[in-house]
Each structure stands twice: as structure tokens, then as C-alpha cells.
Design a protein that fits this description.
Elements lengths: L5 H23 L8 E4 L6 H9 L4 E4 L2 H10 L6 E4 L8 H7 L2 E5 L2 H14 L3 E6 L16 H7 L6 E7 L8 H21 L7 E3 L6 H6 L4 E4 L1 H4 L23
Parallel strand pairs: 1-8, 2-3, 3-4, 4-5, 5-6, 6-7
Helix pairs in contact: 1-2, 4-5, 6-7
Length: about 260
């Protein structure tokens, strides 16, 4: 760590602390630490800080806003970073995702799937995708109803350039552990239902859990956690700038 800048050293230390907490959560439920992937969420983190993070070992970036992600991917094109879009996407932005993103974690409509497929065909690329499921029942959140997920997964079979990898959800923003865990358990139940109804669908990954609740998510079966503030520090803007319908709420206190 001695060759890193002060900021890079802090980021490296934060990443290590998060990984230790991930490993502890895995140990509590008898899982191997390597069964869970950490996706650092880099929204609002400027490109120069991401260079310091890269020196600290960062290789994956999760972004909510396509324009921000695209600008950073161009500014950091000399680095071997992979980019995951984890926020809602309008169909007219599909062309940008098709050009540079490695994964899209918020697929919840056939219209969007069709737009992505067309653009990926033009670009000669494929894209890993996660089906977003609304497990909290909040109207403010995007995502499919849990009961619609299996049919949606079957409908994606003809899309050759969309590689379904799993499911994604945003839990309810609450300090009540039981309410948050219920969302994670609901996503795991959806995974089971899809496997039964659409045996050919690949939904091995469960992307759930953020800075405030990733330990609970891991204990409930997450295979990928999306962590931003625990790595990069507080964001300059409230959460509702990134996630719709949250008002001025902040992420929950870390469990």
C-alpha cells in the first residue's frame, strides 16, 4: 500500500474492511467467502479518484446514470475496468449501454430488452443482464412484480445477445432488519420459482445488498453486493438523486 496515494490507500483499506465484513457474514451462514462478489458502486466518484482506486485494486465499477458512466469509461479507457449499469434505463439510452457496458442489472421490460438486443447486434457485442424484481412492493421502485419474473425470464430466451446471469433487487429502505431481510428472501424465492418454471434460464446470481445492509443480504443468499459509500465515503447528493422515490433518506446505518 506504500506506493499508493493517500486517497488510494484509504480506498484500499475500505475495500479490505468491506471484504472482511463480507467474509464474516459468509462464515455466519457456512458459505465460502469467494461465493460473493463485491461490486464497488462508483456513482459521483470522479475519474481521478477511480484512477487511485484502480491502483488500489479496483477493477469493476457500478454506475446508476448512463451518461456519467459513459464519460468515465471514455476518460479511463486506458484501464481494464468493467462497467455495470445498475440503475433504471430509458430505451433511448440503450445504444450507449450497448457500446461500453459489460453488465446491466436493471432489466424489467421486453421493450428495453428489444432495444438492447438491436443495439448489441449493431455493436457486435453481448451483454450480461440481471432481471430487476421489486421485492419491497413500493410503487416508487422499478422492477417486475415477483409473480411476473418467471414469465419474463422465459420471454428473454430468444434474445441471443442478452446473457441472463441472475436477479437484482433493492430492499426497502428501513432500519428494521426483518423488513429488509424479507425483501432478500423474496428474491431468493423468485429465483427458485424461475428455475422451476423456466429450467433453461440462467439465474445463478442474486445481486442484492448495499452499504447499509450487505451483511444481511449475504446471510440471505446474495452472490453479488453493490457497495459504494462504505468504500468511497458519503456522496455529495441525497440518495433520491440516484434511486427514485426515496425522498431525502440516507442509506441505513451499517449493521
Amino acid at each position: 500500500m506504500s506506493d499508493l496515494s493517500a486517497d488510494g490507500a484509504l480506498i484500499a483499506a475500505n475495500i479490505e474492511a468491506v471484504k472482511q465484513r463480507m467474509a464474516a457474514a459468509c462464515a455466519r451462514v457456512g458459505r465460502a467467502p469467494e461465493s460473493v462478489t463485491l461490486l464497488p458502486v462508483t456513482k459521483t466518484v470522479p475519474a481521478e479518484r477511480l484512477r487511485a482506486a484502480y491502483a488500489a485494486g479496483l477493477r469493476q465499477c457500478g454506475e446508476n446514470k448512463v451518461q456519467e458512466a459513459r464519460e468515465k469509461s471514455e476518460a479511463l479507457a486506458d484501464l481494464d475496468l468493467s462497467w455495470s449499469i445498475i440503475g433504471h434505463l430509458q430505451t433511448n439510452k440503450a445504444k450507449y449501454v450497448a457500446r461500453f457496458a459489460d453488465a446491466f442489472q436493471a432489466l424489467d421490460s421486453l421493450k428495453l430488452a428489444e432495444a438492447l438486443e438491436r443495439r448489441l447486434e449493431i455493436e457486435g457485442r453481448t451483454l450480461d443482464v440481471f432481471i430487476q424484481v421489486n421485492t419491497s412492493g413500493e410503487e416508487s421502485k422499478f422492477g417486475l412484480e415477483p409473480s411476473a419474473a418467471a414469465g419474463f425470464a422465459r420471454a428473454l430466451a430468444p434474445f441471443e445477445r442478452l446473457k441472463v446471469r441472475g436477479l437484482m433487487t433493492l430492499a426497502i429502505f428501513s432500519a428494521e432488519e426483518a423488513a429488509v431481510r424479507a425483501c432478500f428472501r423474496r428474491l431468493r424465492a423468485v429465483q427458485t420459482a424461475i428455475r422451476e418454471a423456466a429450467p433453461g434460464a440462467r439465474v445463478d446470481e442474486l445481486s442484492m445488498g448495499m452499504s447499509g445492509d450487505f451483511a444481511w443480504a449475504i446471510e440471505e443468499g446474495a452472490t453479488l453486493v453493490r457497495v459504494g459509500q462504505a468504500i468511497f465515503g458519503p456522496r455529495p447528493l441525497p440518495d433520491d438523486h440516484y434511486w427514485p422515490g426515496l425522498g431525502s433518506k440516507r442509506e441505513k446505518e451499517t449493521p
